Every structure is written in C-alpha cells, then in structure tokens.
Amino acid sequence: MAEIKPVTVPDIGDYQDVPVIEVMIKVGDQVKAEQSLLTLETDKATMDVPAPFDGVVKEVKIKTGDKISQGSLIALIETSNAAPASATPAENKSAKAQAAPAPQAAGVAGYSSRPAQDGSETAAYPMRNEPAPPRPAVVATGKSHASPAIRRFARELGVDLTRVKGSGEKNRVTKTDVQLFVKAALAQPQGGGGLQVLAMPVVNFAKFGAIETKPLSRIQKISGANLHRNWVTIPHITQHDEADITDMEVFRKQLGQEYAAQGIKITPLAFMLKAVVEALQQFQNFNASLDASGENLVLKKYFHIGVAVDTPDGLMVPVLRDVNQKGLVQLAQELAEVSAKARDKKLPATDMQGGCFTISSLGGIGGTAFTPIINAPEVAILGVSRASMKPVYKDGAFVPRLMLPLSLSYDHRVIDGAAAARFTTYLAQVLSDVRRLAL
Ligand code: CAO
C-alpha cells in the first residue's frame, strides 16, 4: 500500500551544517533506491545522499545552499513497499561501491563520496558539454544508463558516457567501465600530436623564505582544469579593437538616472549584451559550436550569453537566456540578479548551461586589453576593458571621445582573422550608434 515517508539525512560522521550544493530531485520525480537525491559538500569531500527506497517525490524540503546535518528532513517520498525511511550504511553499500572513494571522506557512513573537485555541471566556468575524448577501443552503441555517481565520475574525467559500453546489470555503465574506457583512450597512439612538455619543477619554496599553503577553492580547481584544456586544445587568436561609446555613455547615464529610484543600475555591460547579440545575428559562425566529430559546425538559432562573474571563490559564468528578446533594463536587472546569486553561491547548475558566447568584462576594474580564454564548446569570447577618454582624429581635428577596448578571442579552426575583424568592427559600430540597438 502506498505510504508517504520522510527521508532524512543519515549518519554523516562528525559533520554538522553541511552545505547542500545540488538537489537532484523535484516534486513528481520517480526515484529508485540508491539514486542520488542531493549532493553535500564538506571542506574535504562531496557526498551524494542516495534514496533509501523506490518511490515518487511528494515534497522536497531542502534547497541548494541549505546547511543540513544528520536527521535533517530531505523529502517526503511516497512508496508502496515497506522499506525503512532513512538511508543506512548497509542500504548504501552498492552506491558506496560504485562511487569513487575519497580518502578524506573515509568514515562517513552511508554515502557515495568523491573528492571535492568534481566536474559536475553545478560548478563553474567551462563545465558545460565536455568534448569527446580520443576514440577509444571500446565504443558503445546507443543510449547509456548509469547512476548519477557514475555520471559525475565520468564528467570528472571528461568521458562521454554514450561512448562507454556498460557491463553491469541491464547494460548499466559501471565505474570499471569508465576506467577501462579511459585506459583504452590513453593507450591510443598520439601520432606525435600530444603535448610533450617538461614536468613542472618541484621547488621547496620554504628554503627561500616564509610561506603559507592555501588550498584552491573547488571552483578554482574545476575552472582551472577546464581553462587549461581550452587553452591547449583550441587555437586562440585575440582581435583587439576600440568602440567609441561617447554617445552610448550619455544615454546610459540618462537611463541610469531614470531607473536609479527603482534600484536598477545600468552598466555598460547591458549594452554590450545587446550589441553582441546584434553582431552574432550578423555573423552566425560566432553563434556556433563544433560538433563532437569536429567536422560540422552547429549553428544556434537562440542567443544565450554567458557573463563571467568574479566571486570570492573563483570565476563563474551564469548564462542570460534569449538576450535578443530582452530590453536593456531587463538585462541590467538580470545581470545584477545572477551576479549576486553567483557571489552568494546560489546559482543553480541550469543557470550556467546552454551559453552560445561569453562576455568577460573587467571594465569595472581597469586595464586596456587582455586575452580571454574561450569557454568551450563556444567558439569566441569577448573581453571588455575599461573605457577611457582619448583624442580621436575626426574631420581634421582631435576630439575627446570615450573609447571602449574590446578583445575578441576566437577559435581559429572555425573563424578566420578577417571574420573576427569584421565582427569587432561591426560591434564597435553598433556600440557607437546605440540607435541601432533599438532597431
Ligand atoms: N568602462 C568603464 N567603466 C565601466 C566599464 C567599462 N567597460 N564597465 C563597468 N564600468 C563601471 C560601471 O558603470 C560601474 O560604475 P559605477 O559604480 O560608477 O556605476 C563600475 O564600473 C562597476 O561596475 P560592475 O563591475 O559592478 O558592473 P558590471 O555590470 O560592469 O559587471 C560583473 C558585472 C559581474 C561582470 C563584474 O562585477 C565582474 O565580476 N567582473 C569580473 C569578470 C572577470 O573576472 N572576468 C575575467 C575572467 S578571465 O577571462
């Protein structure tokens, strides 16, 4: 007989008030025993809390960002069998066995756990759509079935699960399958194309003076690995340009005054978002990604723009949806909202997915130009530096104009230098005549 049962946090060792970093269920979801309900993050490891029984989620009692301890109520789940209503170490044996064991999390009962640098999409900067690894010896056919813990493990390693043959029950992909896949991929001949560089020297810095060792944040570890991959695998070129935003600035200040009473701050970035979409509509190859084979360009008909946000824990890239359908004021509001969420660690994974192009603005800080790293699988990123007054030669005389530095990094496999120069020239034109944005 169907019965609604509370599911609580089981024994998690000595941990108290552990932050929830991902909630994987919603009301109405059908869950299976051992399926991960949520992910917790301690300072040492992340842990998945599995469902203790099969059932249908009736209520979810926690959200991302909540801090929970043993006994905290997670959800109400309707079940028709008589399984007990909390996860126990015995019940979670298989989840434990499947997940990557983290030495730091040893002693934490009843959990699948992994080191705190997981590659889940909840995280940061370039964690979307991992590119396919080299063609392996073992190739899967059709759709893959794997538990959330295995999916996460695969994401950490950049493995496309649809290419892994499952050897588990009903062809489910197991951890060993993923490991074998990676081994096979690594064993493929590199054809002389692999990066062969000297190992980094190991230096005892303490020999030269006082030091302090500070661990990188989880976000830094994730974004670092992805930035590294993008930097070494994408042939980057950066095209620098300047836009005359003197008139735009007059309009922005006017608009800013009109909306200040409503608490809306309109920064140049809202204009950049609109102008970039204008340019993407003109130059479709910039609103695209290479497919997994590397032989086709996937042109996107939507305009979702990522914005790099500097947070105390590292860089995050929330994505603003359908920028082409929104006005400056709405974009300014959304920008403020997502930046605040990113800084408060309240950005859900979904808010960081589906971007077509990224803007990285250091304009509020300073600088004249920089080389942003492409947020793969996107093919270009716009860096914006601080606008400054400059003498511009016009009609036989130097006139003071407010010039905005633009730095467009692009994937040279997809975009030619001439196209990049046309893109930034067009972008600068749009920004110098904001009437175009109203068209
Ligand atoms: N030129 C001159 N002034 C600028 C400017 C520019 N290009 N861009 C912003 N400003 C001004 C704003 O108008 C604002 O001025 P007031 O305080 O006088 O109103 C001030 O600088 C601060 O702006 P802001 O940074 O708060 O707001 P924003 O909309 O420009 O940026 C955000 C928001 C979230 C992008 C930003 O806060 C941020 O995190 N930037 C860092 C991104 C980053 O780290 N990129 C590097 C990634 S490595 O590739």
Quick description:
The chain is an alpha+beta fold and 439 residues long. The chain is built from eight helices and 20 strands. The chain folds into three domains: 2-97, OB fold (Dihydrolipoamide Acetyltransferase, E2P), CATH 2.40.50; 116-222, E3-binding domain (Dihydrolipoamide Transferase), CATH 4.10.320; 237-438, Chloramphenicol acetyltransferase-like domain (Chloramphenicol Acetyltransferase), CATH 3.30.559.
Word description of this protein:
This protein has helices at residues 93-98, 148-156, 175-187, 218-233, 246-260, 268-282, 328-343, 417-432, and strands at 3-8, 18-23, 30-31, 36-41, 45-50, 55-60, 67-68, 73-79, 112-115, 236-244, 288-290, 297-299, 305-307, 309-311, 314-316, 319-320, 357-361, 380-384, 388-394, 397-411. It is of the alpha+beta class and 439 residues long. It folds into 3 domains: 2-97, OB fold (Dihydrolipoamide Acetyltransferase, E2P); 116-222, Dihydrolipoamide Transferase (Irregular); 237-438, Chloramphenicol Acetyltransferase, CATH 3.30.559.10. It is built from 8 helices and 20 strands. Residues 82-142 have low confidence and may be disordered. Strands 10, 13, 16, 17, 18, 19 and 20 form a 7-stranded mixed beta sheet that branches. The site of oxidized coenzyme A (CAO) has 21 residues, from helix 6, strand 14, helix 7 and strand 17.
